Amino acid sequence: MRNEYEKQLENLNVELxxxxxxxxxxxxxxxxxxxxxxxxxxxxxxxVEEEIDKSEHxxxxxCMSLLLKQQPVASDFRFVSAALxxxxxxxxxxxxCADIADMIRFTTSYDLKDFKDLExxxxxxKDMLSNAVEAYVKKDKDLAITVxxxxxxxxxxxxxxxxxxxKEIGKKAEDGEFxxxxxxxxxxxxxxxxxxxxxxxxxxxxxxxxxx
Length: 212
Hints:
Blueprint: H1 2-36, H2 40-70, H3 74-104, H4 116-138, H5 141-171, H6 176-208
GO cellular component, one term: cytoplasm
Subunit structure: Homodimer.
Family: Belongs to the PhoU family.
């Protein structure tokens, strides 16, 4: 019985790491599609998002089995309950990348090479998620805190993108729809940063038993 318990915990760990890696992959792929203007990457983003959804269901099943059948000890109970919470944020990251992919078809006719702040923002959001997953793998509460603090950078970049685009709309009203699309895409990246923060907070809780 104990062997089965340990096996399920290890399986949960593996699945969580896999789901985090899928989220990193979909952020990178969607960003590549956005700045290359290559629509083929958008379909790949949707395929990965579907994998993320399947992974969420698998993890939910493992967690419920552990909670209902195995009666985990206190530290393991924290780990399992935190897993149920953080996979919701990972799933939302997948959804938001799919939303960005859907919007890319409206931006492909524009050159985005000058939108360095948006590109930096997407990279910062991806780094937050990568570090949150690493904090989970290594059970590193300090790295989890670093992720939480990094959200300020993503928020500041979003404000920079937004202010710039508002000025551009005033100068080139004919491109107003494009600029609004870019603001919405930037907002999705800002929300991805928020979800990465939530993941880090649940990682911190799973390690310490304390909520930030």
